[in-house]
Write a structure and sequence with these properties.
CATH architecture of the domain at 81-358 and 433-489: Orthogonal Bundle
Distance between the termini: 80 Å
Structural class: alpha+beta
Number of helices: 17
Helix content: 40-55%
CATH superfamily of the domain at 81-358 and 433-489: Cytochrome P450
Number of strands: 11
Radius of gyration: 24 Å
Strand content: 5-15%
Strand order of the largest sheet: 1-2-7-4-3
Largest sheet: 5 strands, mixed
Order of helices and strands: HHEEHEHHHHHHHHHHHHEEEEHHEEEE
Length: 490
């Protein structure tokens, strides 16, 4: 009996503490739906489509509101003006990175994407400089992407027009571009180590966008002790890190400080230069985490966009026809597409932009955090508060895009048929935490998609009107459904 009384009293105290913590912060934070003790607003949010739930909340509470994932408050900014203000005008104040529990268990705050403070600033600065030195946005990296595009065409031709699932093939191409920057060398598409890496990347992306991982993020102290798919993610991360460590060891044995070959060499040289600096952020753990970030961010997001893009094109054969007519007229069949072609190919350029807008790959951005107390739109947001910026609300703004729910390259074309830029095109986010690899990703998407359409007719297995383009998961990122198609050579 005494045990039951103690248990009831303990739970009561926990509930009261939860209510006090939530109510004490709500006077300073923006308004929002009333949270329940311990679980917050989780029952009011469809974890299979968080972005839709946040849009519905914005209709009630306005462009800035607060939701609780468990006991922790998260401020949400919704709509173009609020998002731009938070990420640009308050870019430094909101430059912190929210803790993503399962990632934190793997990288322990190291790397580029999920690090904070001085470590983040130094890793980001170094990575941008190194990627640029190895040609990101310049001709040398363009040549690598062009060469990889031809390897992709060669591999697709091996299907002989038979139905195939493009998942792994479309993942191999951007991954090989990253490999050439990080490891100096690319892989053959049939290489078993390469295929194993691709399998782990793809598996992790799918699991990380499942409701189970959202549940893990809300209650990490409990879920980490339970069986579940989060353990598969952690195992995959460890396997990828082990492979990266092997490559680093090979680089250490053959390093020439006067002739850096790739990203790893540059990092090792920086480590050597700062070996007597006890405050240096450049150590082995940071190298492994940074390489992993470049790998994951540079592979999975681009390959998923390519895969989703081809599915949308299958659904809209009229878009394929117009893009191929433009490719034939501007480039022809006997040379590789290049980035200079883009300015003369407004429809193809608009199609690539519309693919990124429509799929809304990372609908709620990667969450930020306040690094100090912030007064934002008359609200006081305490240091450490998480911030979600709804990219969906920008990419699907019906004042900027006439019919945002419809896939239409015309959203990026003016009345004269010229390409039309839009400030609302923010798939890579904006501000201090914008995607490091934006230039490379945009180059890859244009060159890979244009090269595929130059060499193949895309044939669906079903009537286009029966093709489902809805995501199978939409938690942190949108995952397209599995599908098959035929690549018919011209």
């Amino acid at each position: 009996m005494d045990t039951i009384v103690i248990l009831v009293l303990g739970l009561s105290c926990l509930l009261l503490l939860s209510l006090w913590r939530q109510s004490s912060g709500r006077g300073r934070l923006p308004p929002g739906p009333t949270p329940l003790p311990i679980i917050g607003n989780i029952l009011q949010i469809n974890v299979k489509d968080i972005s839709k739930a946040l849009t519905n909340f914005s209709k009630v509470y306005g462009p800035v509101f607060t939701v609780y994932f468990g006991m922790k408050p998260t401020v949400v900014v919704h709509g173009y003006e609020a998002v731009k203000e938070a990420l640009e005008d308050f870019g430094e104040e909101f430059s912190g990175r929210s803790v993503f529990p399962i990632i934190a268990r793997s990288n322990r705050g190291h790397g580029i994407v999920f690090s904070n403070g001085k470590k983040w600033k130094e890793m980001r600065r170094f990575s941008l400089m190194t990627l640029r030195n190895f040609g990101m946005g310049k001709r040398s990296i363009e040549e690598r992407v062009q060469e990889e595009a031809q390897c992709l065409v060669k591999e697709l031709r091996r299907s002989n027009g038979a139905p195939c699932d493009p998942t792994f093939i479309l993942g191999c191409a951007p991954c090989n571009v990253i490999c050439s920057i990080v490891f100096q060398n690319r892989f053959d598409y049939k290489d078993k180590i390469f295929l194993n890496l691709m399998k782990k990347f793809n598996e992790n992306f799918k699991i990380l966008n499942s409701p189970w991982i959202q549940f893990y993020s809300t209650f990490p102290g409990i879920v980490k002790y339970l069986p579940g798919s989060h353990n598969t993610v952690l195992k995959n991360f460890e396997d990828i890190k082990s492979y990266i460590l092997e490559k680093i060891k090979e680089h250490q044995e053959t390093l020439d400080i006067n002739n850096p070959r790739d990203f790893i060499d540059c990092f090792l040289i920086k480590m050597e230069q700062e070996k007597h600096n006890q405050q240096s952020e450049f150590d082995l753990e940071s190298l492994v985490a940074s390489v992993n970030d470049v790998f994951v961010a540079g592979t999975e997001t681009t390959s998923t966009t390519l895969r989703y893009g081809l599915l949308l094109l299958l659904k809209h054969p009229e878009v394929i026809a117009k893009a191929q007519e433009e490719i034939e007229r501007v480039i022809g069949r006997h040379r590789s597409p290049c980035m200079q072609d883009r300015s003369r190919m407004p429809y193809t350029d608009a199609t690539v932009h519309e693919i990124q807008r429509y799929i809304d790959l990372i609908p709620n951005n990667v969450p930020h955090a306040a690094i100090c107390d912030i007064r934002f739109r008359d609200y006081l947001i305490p240091k450490g508060t998480n911030l979600i910026t709804s990219l969906t609300s920008v990419l699907y703004d019906n004042k900027e895009f006439s019919n945002p729910e419809k896939f239409d390259p015309g959203h990026f074309m003016d009345e004269s048929g010229n390409f039309k830029k839009s400030n609302y095109f923010l798939p890579f986010s904006t501000g201090k935490r914008a995607c490091v690899g934006e230039g490379l990703a945009r180059m890859e998407l244009f060159l890979f998609l244009t090269t595929i359409l130059q060499n193949f007719n895309l044939k669906p297995l079903f009537d286009p009107k029966d093709i489902n383009t809805g995501p199978i998961a939409s938690t942190y990122g949108r995952v397209p459904p599995l599908y098959q198609l035929c690549f018919i050579p011209f």
